[in-house]
């Protein structure tokens, strides 16, 4: 599971995509504010939401021998954390398997935000197999169940 965020621009010299290294697994942390280039956190969230269905909005890391796909929009929304969660929930109704797969992945990452887990007793969306469209139905059920229990935190 990839938990580091990406701002959507070209990879920096230290980024996993630029160095060929695998991203480090670490707890997702909520964004304190918008990433550079965005007027507000809301603008940043909507920018990435609009790109969830874009199959070309990805990068590759891991080098030529072990290429891996970096799902830029989902990773960025996961990095944003708690503020992105309620905006992602409507995407659970998506009929686009790609968009649903990435929304589920982003929700899993965002639900690991420490501000969320501190209120849920450590519960976050624990998907079975991630980033596999064949698992969308099962993962959607897991995400909906979690939202049913914890959605009131965003009321």
What does this molecule look like?
With 155 residues, the protein is mainly alpha-helical. The protein is 38% helix and 5% strand. It has seven helices and two strands, in the order ααββααααα. It has a two-stranded antiparallel sheet with strand order 1-2. Strand 1 and strand 2 form a beta hairpin. The longest helix is centred in the last third of the chain and has 15 residues. The N terminus is likely disordered.
Strand content of the residues, in percent?
Answer: 5-15%
Cα-atom radius of gyration: 15 Å
Number of strands: 2
Mean pLDDT: 84
Please tell me what the overall shape is: globular
Distance between the termini: 29 Å
Q: Which stretches are low in confidence, meaning pLDDT under 50 for 5 or more residues running?
A: 1-30
Strand order of the largest sheet: 1-2
Helix content: 25-40%
Task: Map the helices and strands.
Blueprint: H1 16-19, H2 41-49, E1 58-61, E2 68-71, H3 72-80, H4 85-88, H5 97-110, H6 114-117, H7 136-150
Antiparallel strand pairs: 1-2
Helix pairs in contact: 2-3, 3-5, 5-7
Short structural summary:
The chain has 155 residues and is mainly alpha-helical.
